[in-house]
Amino acid sequence: MRKKAPRLPSPGIRVQLTLWYTAIFALLILIFCGVFYTTLQAFLAAGVDSTLQLRAQQIADGISTSGGKIVIQDITGDLPGLDTTSPLGQQSTRQNGNNQTNDTKNTTQSGVQSDVNIGALVCVLGVQGQKVYISPAFRALTLPTAGFTQPLHNLSWQATVTAYSGQEVRVISVPLLENGKVFGVLQVGESLAQLTHTLQSTTIALLTIAPIVLLLGAIGSYWLAKRAFRPILHLTRTAREIKAGDLHRRVHVPRSRDEVRDLALTLNEMIGRLDQAFTQQRRFVADASHELRTPVTVIRSITDVALEDILRPAEYVEILRDINTEAERLGLLISDLLVLARADEEQVSLDSEQVRLDLLAFDVAASMEPLAVGRGIELAVRMLEPATIIGDTARLIQVLMGLVENALTYTNAGGSVALDVKVQDTMACLMVQDTGIGIASKDIPFIFDRFYRADPARSRVVGGSGLGLSIAHWVIQAHQGSIVVESQVGQGSTFTVMLPLAPSLPQMDANTFKNTHLTTAKAQPRH
Ligand code: ADP
After folding, report:
1. β-bridge pairing 416-424 and 378-384
2. Looking at CB atoms within 10 Å, which of 124, 203, 320, 504 has the fewest?
């Protein structure tokens, strides 16, 4: 088997940023240098061309014809070797008929190598191609035929040619006109040595400066990246220091309104939520242990008494009954805790079936009737409008029984408990109203919290574990509903549950539901 090559550790984000910046910077420098070089080249070339055109124009102004002969007057002083002894500097026409392209001579008459960089590059040709005048430097050039033929058609010609020495020369070839007729061709050249030299120097300068600028750019971007990430490093260090035990700590929030501030605020919010969850969990564990210990302590003390003395059989039966009650209490508490623990982990899957809430309320009231009668409380079903919802029947029965049981528990004998089911727009509304002891306004925000009891001393004797409303709240929320309470001490309480109606379902036969759920409700214990 081939061994996997060890993966290189990824460079830090600062190095990565620096590399990206440098790469982009290098690309920009390259583009800048390219554009600068080509622009400079075009600018210099245009300068040479316009100089050549001007010079050609000036020289052409001094050339004319006289008696069929071309007469050259050196008005620019650019024409070395012109025979100034003849009148008006006149040159006799050579009748050799040689085309300039065939003239490969590149030496002066004295045999010295011509240099296109020294002296003017001027040549005057007759219409037959005979040379009327040629400057010594021009002898080093060979021009293509078009350089002669095109001006004969009254068209200027311009090109870059290479001299024998390898030096590039820009040449312009213009027609010589008299009365609109071409009587000769003037060729003027300019060595591109200066231009080439300027471009070379520029290239060297760019090649020297570009790496220095790039290096400075890389150093600058690394410094900037380091500076930009300093607050994040600070955040990381603080976040790493925060352990489960000290979740009250927070990371420093910078004053600047930027992404780092958002990150710090988000981290602090997250730590806050964790802190809250940890505190809740700790309190839940402490409360649960306390609640579990109470029945165990009661059982221990009862059995201790029984073991110390020899009792009569009737007393043992009494003790066993007490133990049974405490064990039942313990069992209910454990099943409540289990429901909440599963709900927290989102492990409880609820059924989605059609449930007639009004019939369910009727069933629950019927099953609780004996308890109400036993406590001397009137339990009435006031209004039941048909309301079909989608939900988990068993869980909804648990909620209803819990609410009615609470109402009966916290209402004194002679009081009353009433149930209503109404339809309000798209919601089914269930109300459990009692004329009991009520809940103080300071307790109302907490009664849905786990293990919360408004009156611990009383609730422990008559009530349950303080988990009933927490479970009811969770079930209602899981059904996309809400539960609220209105209460006044000494006047009574009203618990209102709102649940979404099943979307456009035909209301079912009341009897079908009644038969289904009456037995369920009766058989269903509170937990
Ligand atoms: P418990 O098992 O103690 O009844 P619950 O979660 O069902 O726990 O209720 C929490 C607390 O809310 C109770 O201890 C009680 O103080 C208060 N409470 C609930 N229902 C009523 C009610 N109908 N009237 C007055 N107080 C109530």
Report:
1. parallel
2. 504
Residue 64 to residue 85: CA distance in whole angstroms: 17
pLDDT band at residue 139 using 50, 70 and 90 as cut-offs:
confident
Note the pLDDT tens digit of each residue in 70-105: 888 877 776 776 654 333 334 433 333 343 433 434
Phi, psi of 157 (to 5 degrees): -130, 140
Joined together, the tokens standing for residue 481 give 């509903």
| H-run or E-run covering 378 | strand 378-384
Q: Tell me, in angstroms, the distance from the centre of ligand 1 to residue 456's CA.
A: 10
> Closest ligand 1 atom, CA of 434?
23
Determine contact, residues 222/18, Cβ cutoff 8 Å.
Answer: yes
Q: Report yes or no: 357 and 428 within 8 Å, Cβ to Cβ.
A: yes
Question: What's the pTM value of the predicted model, to 2 decimals?
Answer: 0.56
pLDDT of residue 3: 55
Q: Which of 170, 141, 162 is nearest to 45 (CA)?
A: 170
When pLDDT is cut at 50, 70 and 90, the band that residue 355 belongs to is: very high
Range 204-210, long-range pairs (CB < 8 A, 24+ positions):
206/33, 206/36, 206/37, 210/29, 210/30, 210/33
pLDDT at 517 over 60: no
